[in-house]
Write a structure and sequence with these properties.
Blueprint lengths: L2 H10 L2 H6 L18 H19 L5 E5 L7 H20 L9 E5 L10 H11 L16 H12 L3 H15 L3 H13 L3 E4 L4 E4 L1 H6 L6 H10 L3 H11 L7 H10 L5 H10 L1
Parallel strand pairs: 1-2
Antiparallel strand pairs: 3-4
Length: 276
Amino acid sequence: LDEESLSILFEYIPNLRHVMTDDDSQKEQIEYMFDACDTIASKYRMHHWFHSLLISISRDTPVLLFLDDLHWADTASLELITFIVDEMGASIADNASCAQSTNVFIVGTYRSNEIDNSKGLQNCLQQMQGCCNVSVTEIAVQHFSSSDVNLMISEALCYSQRLTRSLADIVHQKTVGNPFFVKEFLNDLTVENLLVYSFSQRMWEWNEDLIESRIISDGVAEILIRKLRRLPKDQLSGLTMLSCFGSEVSLEVLNLVKNSYGRLDILQSLDCIAQA
């Protein structure tokens, strides 16, 4: 990648500058615009830059590229992913001894019940499965068993599985082994002081009778509602405003809201919520 290509990628991935350079100063920015008369060529130049970037950073160290919620990915993102996978497979075919082309491991997740609503994702998966020299493995993530939940809690609390077995049985009963539900339920227990760490005793303590008596009629939704109600007022206001736009909204619109809604910085509020 030449300096101009890197500068353009820095615009799309700001944190990349800190990873690949030691200079934190703001250099002259190069604005890259797709040429309306040459859209296809411009798109493939961008694809090539991302592919070259992955090859460069994985030359000496294996790279894991994790892509979450692919069912929400737009067409441009799915086309980029397909291009990268296809190019890596082709590079292996062209040079079997080229180790750098095998140093990238891509993991993507999506909701199986959402894939019917995403024709782009269906096409992307079909194309990747047809790529030469690329092994695609599909893993259906099922609900945890009681033993799985016990292992999860045991590792979270740094306790032996023998000591967490009774708590894990209750958690599994309440959450039906849904991994996200298990995590949120445990967080809820700590917030409600039903699962606390005693510094004097240097051990975790919990009341199984109180945990057992907790009624969660609406499942994980009820826990998330309680979590929302505990948010600071400004963060809750930002989330309430965001919900008015539906499931998707552009940053440009949020910036307009930020500039016209008094002191509330909706972007900062949403960042705080995302980090919580």
